[in-house]
Design brief:
Length: 278
Amino acid sequence: MRRAVRLSVLPTRLHTPDSRLTTTRNSASRNFTEFSELGTRNRARGGSPLASTARTRIKICCLQSLDELGLAVRHGADAVGLVSAMPSGPGPIPEPLIARLARAVPPGVASFLLTSARGAAAIADQVRRLGPQVVQIVDTPEAGCHAALRAAAPAVKIVQVVHVTGPDALSAALALAEQVDALLLDSGNPAAAVRELGGTGRTHDWSVSRRIRDSVAVPVWLAGGLTPGNVAAAIEAVRPFGVDVCSGVRTQGRLDEQRLAAFTAAVAAAGRGRAAGA
């Protein structure tokens, strides 16, 4: 059984906030990376990684600046996404900026590096250069990638994206779930002429996502076309560990505080509804 690694044992430099950032988060809040322990415990007993009343985590993706990082944190983000080079879609930023933002992420918030690399050596090299706490692999990895990456970067959590293009996504998710700390279900199309690996602004068939969520013993993040107007319905339909948003909280490419506030309020309201109905 793989032993869970807590953020407290990660290098201190990952937790050093930039002087421009302040945070109102409660330091006693449950640390996001407990998802590793959730998955390990529930694999052993064959259960779902979440109770139906668990709080839905929020990941704000495609951050472009320290100001956007501060805005996401102030509005309660559990995790933030930093996008490296991609074949298409919004959000990529230069690697020096990714490294700076990863260093600035405060305790209690997880930094995700989104990578389109498919091999363990290339991904591990990015991790060493940029210092994220979690790596999100958005394309189909090479054979043996997850095991080799875990050996090369054991302190970093691994989240594998599954693009829900149809019912066959369930079999792909089942094959991947035992190798990673969490899955993220998105609406890309890796088979497109120009590969779409995220940031499409499209939703997918949430009934397939729910089947995946009910079938795997690792936490499941839901992405793809989420907005303040549909995220509550998405949570009700899928019951994910967390939701991931990029374009749904942006206006003309910039993080929009009003849309962000509406999104986080909708997630919180959905959580209260779940608790009341339990």
